[in-house]
UniProtKB/TrEMBL annotation:
This is AWPM-19-like family protein. Keywords: Membrane, Transmembrane, Transmembrane helix. It comes from Populus trichocarpa (Western balsam poplar). InterPro entries: AWPM-19. The chain crosses the membrane at residues 12-34, 54-78, 85-106, 126-147.
Amino acid sequence: MMAVGRDSKDLIGPLLAVNLVFYLIVLGLAGWSVDKYINGEQNHPHLGGNPATSFMLIYALLSGVIGASSMLVGFVHLRAWRNDSLASASAMAIISWAITALAFGFECKQILLGGHRGKRLKTLEALIIISLLSQFLYVVLLHAGFFRSRYGPGYHNYGSDSVGDIPVGNEPHMSST
């Protein structure tokens, strides 16, 4: 008999590690780029950009910080693998995905406006796209227990006689003698 959530747990561990690395690289590139913008070096050969670049960089920086934090909470959930840790991990994952999606939106606008974009800016754009997709996969894997308990801790409906695909017995009653 397989342990509850083993299928999803085997996939989430490596995905957390990869996402953490991506978010830390996004954080580093966005931080470097914001520093160059603050110093007035928009014409740096590795940077460039247009009016949408500053917005994209700010949201990429936020995405990197919140995404890395989300991965750390995810590692705690992976260690505990319980319903209560699922709640915090999934909340952080959804918030992180939403902010990464905002950064992606500004990135699309930046690409549409055109202009010179240096290689570090293009690398940051690619990493935001990859982070958006991999974070979405992480959110889906976290919520896989909703569909079947073999994929992980799920959501319980305490008012019914079953939880997912696991039947729930009646509570033990005290018998009076």
